[in-house]
Write the structure tokens for this entry.
Amino acid sequence: MYSDAIVAQALALERTGRSPDSIASELGISRTTVVAWLRVGSSLVAERGASRLGRPTYRGECIDPASLDPSAYAYLLGQYLGDGCISAVKRSFRLRITCCDDYPGVMDECELAIVTVRPEAQVRRLPRTGCTELSDSWHHWPCLLPHGRGGVKHTRLIELTEWQRHLALEAAPGQFVRGLIHSDGWRGTNRVRGANGKTYEYPRYLFSNRSADIRQLFVDGCERISVGTRRMNAWTVSVAKRADVAILDQVVGPKC
């Protein structure tokens, strides 16, 4: 829920001539919410309170986390943390996950995870440049993926709840790591020149994300499946030892 101060700030910015897009960007909230606030104006904000404007209401009972398929949820969580978001839309919330068109198998697996977690899901595929957006609208997506609000992920705290940690890091850590790599990771060949002047090649996995919290979750997931990692640079984690790469090859498989 947004405070009255945030709503007042949005209204004040609008009076200076700012557009809804620029206001939403500055405050780290969705454009849909800003438009709703600007439409009703300051009088209705004061009368009803910020928490009831631009926010869908929760309807019906949410899925019990204990009933979730651990493998499907862990994979979906990994995909969401890498390339997903949740936004408020009319009377609901919309989950969006962007998948690269070069990997149709990954796209199919992501859609399967969504409908396994939520059997009533009606996943839409929206073509974008070089990628496809998978989306589904539901009132309870923020309950199952409670990191959907508050700005871009790398600017805020990403912390799993106790039941999320159980599913992702205890029940199905391999699928969690698989989802993360399918979204923000890749397997490639590293080439180095030795002291003798010869060039050596070896396979390695890289995972890159601007959020330190998400990178740490990747490291935690790898530790759970006995895979060693090392920090490569500010945003990237590397898995390069032969035994560790072999484990990821079994867990992740070819990205296709």
